[in-house]
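Dear support,

Our group has been running a series of protein-ligand predictions, and this particular one with fe (ii) ion is the one our PI (initials K.S.) wants archived with full inputs and outputs. We had some confusion internally about which version of the output was final, so please treat the block below as the authoritative record. The input we submitted was:
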Amino acid sequence: MNNDKLVRAKILVIDDDVNMMDVLSVVLRRYGHEVKTYTEPLAAIEELRRNKYDILLVNYLMTPVKGDKIVETVREFNKEIYIILMSIHKDLAPSIETMQHLDIQAYYEKSNRFDNLILLIQGGIKYIEQINKIKTMNNQLDHYLVDFAKILLQTIGAKDHYTEEHSRRVTLLCIAFANYLNLDERQKSDLQIAAAFHDIGKIGIPDNILLKTSRLTDEEYNVIKTHPVIAANIFSVSDIYKDIYPIMYHHHERYDSKGYPAGIGGKQIPYLARILTICDSFDAIVSKRTYKEGQTIEFALTEIEKGAGTQFDPELAPQYINMVKNNMSYIEQIYNEF
Ligand SMILES: [Fe+2]
Ligand SMILES: [Fe+2]
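Confirmed final output from the archive:
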C-alpha cells in the first residue's frame, strides 16, 4: 500500500454464504490477490480495526446484521478502504443514496461469472493508486512549505537576528503545545507554519524602528503594530496559505478584545491564533533583548497565569502552564540552545 503501484490487493470478504465465499477466494487468489474471509461480521470488523486492507467485499443481505450496517461501522474508523457491496439481485440492492452516504464505491451482482467482479477490483486498485499518489504529493507540498519557511526565516535573520531566533523558539513551543493538546495533523502543520512566519511582517518595518535599542515612541510602536497585517498580506497572495494567514494576522489579539489589529476577542479569535499568542508571549518574556534581561521560565508562567481571561484564553493558559511544567527539561533546552 505504500508504493504507488499496487498490483495485488489485500481483500477482506464478509459473506454468510460459505459456498459462495469459497468460490470467491479461489477466483481472487488465482488473480494474485491476498484474501481473508469472514462469516461473522463482528470478527471481520475487529480484523479491519487491527490490520490494513485495500478492499472490502461485503454481502448486503445477511442476518442478523445487513451489509450496509457493517459498512456504517467500518466507515466510522476507516474512510480509505475501497468497498464493494454484493447482492444476489440488483432489485435487492440498497438505494444509490445509501451507497453514496456510506461511500460504497461499487456494486457487484453475484453470478457464476466473475469477470465483472475482477474488473471492479481492478478499478478499486486504480482508485487506491490515485489516492496514494495524492497523499505523496500532499506530503511533498508540506515539505516544500517547510523548506520555504526556512528560506524566509533566513531572510528575516539577515535583517533582524532576534526575530529569526524568536520565530524558531516559538515554533518549537507551538509544536510541544500542539502535541500536548492532541491537535490533528492538519492543525499541527498549520500552526507550525504560522508560528515560523508569524513575525515575517517585520520585514516591512523600517530598520530605524525595528532595530532601535532604546524605548520606542508611541508613533514608532504603532508602526511595529502593523507587522501582523503585513504578514497576512504577504501570505494572502496564495490559496495554499488561506488557513494559515488568519493565524498570523490575529497573533496579537487579546482575549478581552484590547489587542490588535482587529480588536476581536474571546472565541472570535481563531483557536490556533490563541495558541500562538501564548507561546509568542511566553518567549517574549523569557528571551533576552538589548533593552531588557530575560526572565525565568517560572516568572513567565506566572505572567501567563495572570493574563488568563484578559490577554489569554482562560482555558488554554492553564493547559500551557501544565505543558511547560510537564516538559521542563525540554523547554529549558530550547532556551539553552539559542
Ligand atoms: Fe508579533
Ligand atoms: Fe512574535
